[in-house]
């Protein structure tokens, strides 16, 4: 892997520990174990090399599908999705590592959640390395509960607070704007925080900020999952959940930079697409019944709102 004065080894060590801690907590709630799929792409076998650990749970007691992946890959030319906003690094060698997860609970009253934290560096002979951190987390409920959304946003705010009062409003807005389906003119969910190309605090403090976000994930999501996982539901709720999951698929395949980066760089397709929900439906021209809980998701939650 490319050597960098910004010590990618210490980032990798923390990322692997984060993945392990999250898996342990989720297995305790679900009662079933994640499978461990370790993979490697040797140099010379494609445009990228490296490897990772994909941890997957399907048909669990609580999680219908959950994926928590670690990857550490490198290459010699950046795909268009990565260099679009930074044309100055287009010709550099690059290295990327991160933990990314998506959890799709079985119960429609328990929201889907996404989180990722990542580190990227690009090098060229005789030039200073270009590096940054990125990541965030966002919540996608199917049935809205104000206490859940407020708790999630408050935890995100608290994770960023030690690093500057300006970060949470900025990263919340970034999340609202990023996780937006332009062709639908609607948000994917109720947001959270999102940041990319972050290096403003210097390496040590920027890394500390990313760690605070990653470490805050379990505090942000597990109380919500515990509260909703046993709520009674029927076929109506499952049907609406499958319909709304279609929006998740549309966003990931059309807009998500991480998905596009992985696919365009020749990444491991199975690991890239582990975020997809297992059961999805699309309908033509359907709208929820006025005044219903399904309609309330649109009117009260899928809107721009300051939750904390």
From TrEMBL:
It holds the Pfam family Coprogen_oxidas. Gene3D superfamilies: Coproporphyrinogen III oxidase, aerobic. It is found in: Cytoplasm. Substrate binds at residues 100, 116-118, 266-268. Its cofactor is a divalent metal cation. Pathway: Porphyrin-containing compound metabolism; protoporphyrin-IX biosynthesis; protoporphyrinogen-IX from coproporphyrinogen-III (O2 route): step 1/1. The record marks 183 as: Important for dimerization. Its EC number is 1.3.3.3. GO terms for biological process: protoporphyrinogen IX biosynthetic process. Keywords: Cytoplasm, Heme biosynthesis, Metal-binding, Oxidoreductase, Porphyrin biosynthesis. The active site is at residue 114. A divalent metal cation binds at residues 104, 114, 153, 183. Transmembrane segments: none annotated. It is an enzyme of class 1 (oxidoreductase). One of its GO terms (cellular component) is cytoplasm. Its main location: cytoplasm. Involved in the heme biosynthesis. Catalyzes the aerobic oxidative decarboxylation of propionate groups of rings A and B of coproporphyrinogen-III to yield the vinyl groups in protoporphyrinogen-IX. Belongs to the aerobic coproporphyrinogen-III oxidase family. Homodimer. NCBIfam families: PRK05330.1 (NF003727). This is Oxygen-dependent coproporphyrinogen-III oxidase. It comes from Noviherbaspirillum cavernae.
């Amino acid at each position: 892997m490319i050597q960098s004065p910004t010590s990618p080894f210490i980032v990798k060590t923390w990322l692997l520990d984060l993945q392990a801690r999250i898996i342990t907590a989720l297995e305790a709630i679900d009662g079933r174990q994640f499978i461990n799929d370790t993979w490697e792409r040797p140099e010379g076998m494609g445009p990228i090399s490296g490897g990772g650990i994909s941890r997957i749970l399907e048909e669990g007691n609580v999680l219908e599908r959950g994926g928590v992946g670690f990857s550490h890959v490198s290459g010699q030319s950046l795909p268009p999705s990565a260099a679009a906003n930074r044309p100055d690094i287009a010709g550099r060698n690059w290295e990327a590592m991160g933990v990314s997860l998506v959890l799709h609970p079985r119960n429609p009253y328990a929201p889907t959640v996404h989180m990722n934290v990542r580190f990227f560096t690009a090098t060229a002979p005789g030039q200073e390395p270009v590096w940054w951190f990125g990541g965030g987390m966002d919540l996608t409920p199917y049935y809205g509960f104000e206490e859940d959304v407020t708790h999630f946003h408050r935890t995100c705010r608290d994770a960023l607070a030690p690093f500057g009062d300006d970060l949470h409003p900025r990263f919340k807005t970034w999340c609202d704007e990023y996780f937006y389906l332009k062709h639908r003119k609607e948000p994917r969910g109720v947001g959270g925080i999102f940041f990319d190309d972050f290096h403003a605090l210097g390496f040590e403090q920027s890394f500390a900020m990313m760690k605070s976000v990653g470490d805050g994930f379990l505090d942000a999501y597990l109380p919500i999952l515990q509260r909703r996982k046993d709520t009674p539901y029927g076929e109506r709720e499952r049907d609406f959940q499958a319909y709304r999951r279609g929006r998740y698929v549309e966003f990931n395949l059309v807009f998500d930079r991480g998905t596009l980066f992985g696919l365009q760089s020749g990444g491991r397709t199975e690991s890239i697409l582990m975020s997809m929900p297992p059961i999805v439906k699309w309908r033509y021209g359907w709208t929820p019944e006025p005044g219903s809980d399904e309609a309330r998701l649109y009117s009260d939650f899928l809107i721009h709102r300051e939750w904390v």
